Every structure is written in structure tokens, then in C-alpha cells.
From TrEMBL:
CDD domains: AdoMet_MTases. This is Trans-aconitate methyltransferase. GO terms for biological process: methylation. It comes from Micrococcus endophyticus. Coiled coil: none annotated.
Length: 211
């Protein structure tokens, strides 16, 4: 029997409990911080993390001096996030990404393996809110999943490369990598089709490439 594909309504508690002990931030988070630090003092910058899971990335961002707003649909992480928020620089909410409207203004929008679980019918509005939240020069660091992924269905958002390129119009694309290969997952091996995106909002109107 195959494991059902995870969606925004899945029970993510076991996954996030396993991630809580992860000592290292995701590589995309590290690259996003480097991109932000190249341009700006990290202190007093604001990050928005969508689908924050166990809070490993948020803890790192807080330690660097950023203020952070996070959201995740999994209520099991709320106590740990509340403990992190006691420092005064984190605002966490339990809820769905697609219901957070508007998003706060952000120097960094980060979403490691989370946006694909937004239902397809809600994704375009979520993406517009992400684009609107980015301040001039703000950094966008997200994973998007592709149509060849084993989990692909309209219960989530699984995109073709032209669709991904379309989403990135008007941004300075620092990195767009595509991986389509079999590999391990929490639920067992599967075919992964993943676009990893690191991009930057235009700094001035003149930086805006034509749409
Ligand atoms: C694969 S995990 C990634 C978690 C974390 N970003 C990480 O890198 O470990 C996906 C996360 O997205 C959350 N999630 C899934 N659908 C969501 C939605 N529609 N709104 C908010 N969170 C969602 C899950 O609860 C889970 O924590």
C-alpha cells in the first residue's frame, strides 16, 4: 500500500517532532541569509516564514537578530514556538498559509518545502501576497514542487517549469534549480520534482524587468 501524499490537512506532527532535533538549518535558509546579509545589516530585518515546521530556521533567524513572523498549520508545534516567542522577536500563528492575508512586509520570505501543500486553487492568491510582502530588495527563498512529483495533485501545488518561470517574472532570479529524481522522504522513498528558488525583489522601479 502506498502512503497518501501529504496535504495542508495532513497530520504533520510526527514529521515536525522528528525535525525538532535537527541541528542544522536547511541549505536554502543559509543561502537566503547570505543573500540578505550581502545587502543589509541583518539586525532589525524582518523575515516571514511560511510552513515553519519545528522552528529550526526561525530560531536561527532570531539568533542572527532578525524579527520573525511564522505560520504553520500544525498545532503540535505551538508550545515550542510560544517558548521561542517569549524572547519578544517572534510572532507565530497556527493556521493555513492561504488564510494569512495580507502578509506582513518582509525583507525575507522563506518557505522550505511548504508552499506545495497549499491547494492549487489558493496558490495564485498566496503568491500575489508573497510578492506584495517583499520590500524593495527583499529576498525570496522557497521550494516549489513540480508536476513530475509522486505527490502531484490539485490538493497541493505542483508546477511545470514554465509556470515557475512565470511566477518569477519581475524578480532578480539568483538561483533556480530543478531536481527530478527518486530519493528518501519521511514517508519512504518517492520521486521528487523540486524547484528551489532564491530571488530578490527589484530594489528600484528601474530594476523591474519587463513582464
Ligand atoms: C515538509 S514540512 C516542512 C517544515 C519546515 N519548513 C522544514 O523545513 O522542516 C511542511 C510543513 O508545512 C506545514 N503546512 C502544510 N500545509 C500548510 C498550509 N496550508 N498552511 C500552513 N502550514 C502548512 C506542515 O504543518 C509542515 O510543518
Amino acid at each position: 500500500m502506498t502512503t497518501p501524499a501529504p496535504t495542508s490537512r495532513s497530520d504533520w506532527a510526527a514529521y515536525n517532532a522528528a525535525q525538532a532535533g535537527r541541528g542544522r538549518i536547511r541549505p536554502l535558509t543559509a543561502r537566503a541569509v547570505d543573500a540578505l546579509a550581502a545587502d543589509a545589516d541583518l539586525r532589525a530585518r524582518h523575515a516571514v516564514e511560511l510552513g515553519c515546521g519545528a522552528g529550526v530556521e526561525a530560531r536561527h533567524l532570531l539568533a542572527l537578530g532578525l524579527t520573525v513572523s511564522t505560520i504553520d498549520a500544525d498545532p503540535s508545534i505551538a508550545p515550542a514556538m510560544a517558548a521561542l516567542a517569549a524572547g519578544g522577536a517572534l510572532d507565530h500563528r497556527t493556521g493555513r498559509i492561504e488564510d494569512w492575508d495580507p502578509l506582513p512586509a518582509a525583507d525575507l520570505v522563506l518557505a522550505n518545502a511548504a508552499l506545495p501543500f497549499v491547494p492549487r486553487h489558493a496558490f495564485d492568491a498566496v503568491w500575489s501576497r508573497i510578492r506584495a510582502a517583499l520590500v524593495p530588495g527583499g529576498v525570496l527563498a522557497v521550494d516549489l514542487f513540480g508536476a513530475e512529483d509522486d505527490w502531484s495533485s490539485d490538493a497541493g501545488t505542483y508546477l511545470t517549469r514554465p509556470e515557475v518561470e512565470d511566477l518569477l517574472r519581475g524578480l532578480e532570479v539568483v538561483e533556480l534549480t530543478e531536481r527530478s529524481e527518486r530519493g528518501p522522504a519521511f514517508s519512504g522513498p518517492k520521486h521528487w520534482h523540486v524547484f528551489t528558488v532564491l530571488a530578490r525583489a527589484p530594489r528600484r522601479p528601474s530594476d523591474h524587468s519587463p513582464v
